[in-house]
Amino acid sequence: MAISLAHTTLLSRTSLFLSRNSRSLAFCIPFSTSSSSAAASSLPSDKLHRNKWRSPVASVLELGGVKIGREDVMRDDPTNNVPDTIFSKLGMQLHRRDQHPIGILKNAIFEYFDTSYPNKFDKFDDLCPIVTVKQNFDDVLVPADHVSRSYNDTYYIDAQSVLRCHTSAHQAELLRRGHTHFLVTGDVYRRDSIDSTHYPVFHQMEGVRVFSPDDWEASGVDATSYAAEDLKKCLEGLANHLFGAVEMRWIDTYFPFTNPSFELEIYFQEKWLEVLGCGVTEQEILKRSGKTNNVAWAFGLGLERLAMVLFDIPDIRLFWSNDERFTSQFSKGQLGVKFKPFSKYPPCYKDISFWINESFTENNLCEVVRGIAGDLAEEVLLIDNFTNKKGMTSHCYRIAYRSMERSLTDDEINELQWNVREQVQSKLNVVLR
């Protein structure tokens, strides 16, 4: 179960591949970064600073030894809604970079579990982000009519396969394979709004622990209470490990895959901060995985949300920056080093107004804007809407353009906005005002 509070949630012909090492389940071979790093280091410093986006380092992924090209992910299929901007992020795996804030945080969490539960938890951080609809939704009891299944929220490769929305997509398979204690970390994908805390690619970590009757029968409490108590003790220890001695509180909540379900909040920097979601795993999930006499707990957290707090990173787009003024500030094993802003370029605002239709969604608008402006789009905000006497509804959105690394020229911004207007009209079938 990976509940993302950062945003608060195998190709169908490709099977899972177990390596001979029982503690390593490898589905993806990451892109090589050596050639791109060498090329970047040879650039003059001013050009390096302007190297805003990292281009895709390869046109294919290798999944279980099978090469999967761009056409396999961005198919000519009526249900496919994966754009180039998303394909370019596949295989980048920020969570596997030891000197990146996401990798540093992941390793700090691994350190806690290695210390508190020696040789207990299997760790997986290279599982393929392409999964079946069944793995992503059905196996974790997401209702058939749940909004997360819609094309507005999820990136579909075809009707039967998606880019995973959460690391929970691997939970059922790992349970069936016999794993009883495991941590899964990975990049996850959701169509989303554009602002400083939301990005269509982010990173989650999920933890699962399974208990047998021998564990709880001698405790004098029922299985569910035993698992819930152990879960809270584990996660309170994790919060102390990451944030120091902080005040905490538990909030009862609802998730389809756990019962009871909780959110952990800590009092940090003079405000309450949501850290993660968790709960006792629904028995149906365990039953389907062949564990009818067991009970389990699961938790999920968004790494970007916690990293932004721990490292004082103000904008989620920075995690994807290759600017050495950002990357050079972080070192392996140094959790909580405070980010020092290296620039604060002014934003440029452009408005766009149009009459919407019944199929219009804000996520679709944001996909169009991202497809043209990429990470230069800082925010898309609805600033006005009204319905006229004929029943037609107008929306006015303000787009903030800003680079984290350089000043944008008027010509650049005007060209971006012109392209946005053209694409919004043609792709979303709206009438510009």
From TrEMBL:
One of its GO terms (molecular function) is ATP binding. It catalyses: tRNA(Phe) + L-phenylalanine + ATP = L-phenylalanyl-tRNA(Phe) + AMP + diphosphate + H(+). GO terms for biological process: phenylalanyl-tRNA aminoacylation. It is found in: Mitochondrion matrix. The keyword Transit peptide applies. It comes from the Eukaryota. It holds the Pfam family tRNA-synt_2d. Keywords: Aminoacyl-tRNA synthetase, ATP-binding, Ligase, Mitochondrion, Nucleotide-binding, Protein biosynthesis, Transit peptide. Residues 343-433 form the FDX-ACB domain. Residues 186-341 form the Aminoacyl-transfer RNA synthetases class-II family profile domain. InterPro entries: aa-tRNA-synth_II (IPR006195), aa-tRNA-synth_II/BPL/LPL (IPR045864), Fdx_antiC-bd (IPR005121), Fdx_antiC-bd_sf (IPR036690), Phe-tRNA-synth_IIc_mito (IPR004530), Phenylalanyl-tRNA_Synthase (IPR002319). NCBIfam families: pheS_mito. This is phenylalanine--tRNA ligase. The lineage of its organism: Eukaryota, Viridiplantae, Streptophyta, Embryophyta, Tracheophyta.
